[in-house]
Design goal:
The protein folds into 2 domains: 180 residues, Amidase signature (AS) enzymes; 225 residues, Amidase signature (AS) domain (Amidase signature (AS) enzymes). 38% of the residues lie in helices and 15% in strands. The longest helix has 29 residues. The protein is globular, with a radius of gyration of 20 Å.
């Protein structure tokens, strides 16, 4: 397939801005793109699938998150490609093609906010909006070598955003510059500028980093050296996250005693169970939202996506109450661990982006390793930022920082403080 000038990032292009203001606004002069899951008045929200687009009318209003950015002075340049119904993490779409990863053209861009990440990485826009339910901002940010922020659950309005799973859906954003990432956050979170606060501790999740295929000198050691330079060695702590989760999240026993048929040997059992609980609740909530449309229309889905969606349609309510208990217990456990200004460090993803032609497995086993990491913030509702750390074997790599629910401003400021030192230390 011939590479398009826009790297396949856009579904449709337009220029949308509010009346120019007479005074400087927080995002004046910046351009952005919007994942095709957000309503924009007068445009059909396509949800990554042509059958969805054919069976739905144009939006009659614009999502508040998009309106906030326009009101702050930014200009929207179009809607971006995504995985069908936001139900994948690769960015592959059989109907519209796979957006080209500007940092590694032979690798997938990550999904489901694939086009949003590619538009930023290719410098087609200054920043973009995506959504992150299971992984959909953090993974493409990691794979495309840019910054990606998943806010605290409920911190940014999801009105006018097609739902996937209400217990996990968040509006996230992607940028190349930590200052812009922070400015976007102030607008979307409706927060004033505040001075940075020194972290009380940055906890290295050692067992999570052992899941990574990237040598620790390119991740952990870069982070530790940067922390020591900026905040002192006393700020660095270490923990075995799987043990903490096992001890403090008793409801996970309901997901650890199922014969471990999906267990991957080196994943801590408690984190594998956390991933299982998250995916079970996502499937159940997806079914509640979309089963009626899927069964009525019988849409054409791509390989992998089709199996995943129909599995969700068959989901039952078994163990759903325990899924909610897991989320409550995990949030309490991590809040106690981190305190007000502590941060947890872990890999964003456990390895390099898959190759485009690889047709990655759709089995639960394949997803266990990445989701055992991604479900930490997802299930707790904590905020998380993926930070690029250069390249390894000619593909982008990243690290993530997680802070407690409601600490979005603190985490955005920390990224801005830490970013340049991390890049210098690589």
């Amino acid at each position: 397939m011939v590479k398009r000038l826009d790297y396949g990032a856009f579904m449709e292009k337009f220029s949308l801005q509010l009346s120019p203001s007479q005074h400087q606004l927080p995002l004046s002069g910046l351009t952005f793109a919007v994942k095709d899951i957000f309503d924009i008045e007068g445009y059909v929200t396509g949800f990554g699938n042509p059958d969805w687009a054919k069976t739905h009318s144009a939006a009659t209003s614009t999502a508040p998150a998009v309106m906030d950015l326009l009101t702050a002075g930014a200009t929207c340049l179009g809607k971006t490609a995504m995985d069908e119904m936001a139900y994948c993490m690769y960015g592959v779409n059989k109907h519209y093609g796979t957006p080209t990863n500007p940092c590694a053209p032979d690798r997938v861009p990550g999904g489901s906010s694939s086009g949003s990440a590619v538009a930023v990485a290719a410098k087609l826009v200054d920043f973009s909006l995506g959504t992150d339910t299971g992984a959909s901002v953090r993974v493409p940010a990691s794979y495309c070598g840019i910054l990606g922020f998943r806010p605290s659950l409920g911190a940014v309005s999801t009105v006018g955003v097609l739902p996937m799973s209400q217990s996990y859906d968040t509006v996230g954003w992607l940028a190349r510059d930590p200052m812009i990432l922070n400015r976007i956050g102030r607008v979307l979170l409706h927060l004033p500028d505040v001075d940075p606060i020194k972290p009380s501790q940055i906890i290295i999740a050692e067992d999570c980093f052992r899941l990574s295929t990237i040598p620790s000198d390119r991740t952990v050691q870069v982070l530790v050296k940067s922390i020591e330079k900026l905040f002192g060695a006393q700020c660095v702590k270490h923990a075995i996250l799987g043990d903490l989760v096992k001890d403090k999240v008793p409801s996970l026993q309901h997901f650890m005693d199922k014969g471990n048929e999906d267990q991957v040997d080196d994943i801590p059992p408690s984190l594998a169970a956390l991933s299982s609980a998250m995916r079970l609740l996502q499937r159940y909530e997806f079914k509640n939202y979309h089963a009626k449309w899927v069964t009525k229309v019988n849409p054409d889905f791509g390989p992998g996506i089709s199996e995943r969606i129909w599995d969700a349609i068959k989901a039952t309510g078994e163990n759903i109450d325990f899924c909610h208990s897991v989320r409550t217990e995990l949030r309490a456990a991590l809040t106690a661990l981190l305190g007000d200004h502590g941060v947890l460090a872990l890999p964003t993803t456990p390895g390099e982006p898959p190759k485009v032609q690889a047709n990655p497995s759709t089995s639960d086993i394949f997803f266990s390793r990445p989701f055992s990491l991604l479900s930490v913030a997802g299930s707790s509702g904590f905020c998380q930022v993926s930070i690029p750390l250069g390249r390894y074997d000619n593909v982008p790599l990243a690290i993530s920082l997680v802070a407690k629910h409601g600490s979005d401003a603190f985490l955005l400021n920390l990224v801005e403080t830490l970013y340049d030192t991390l890049q210098e230390t690589i």
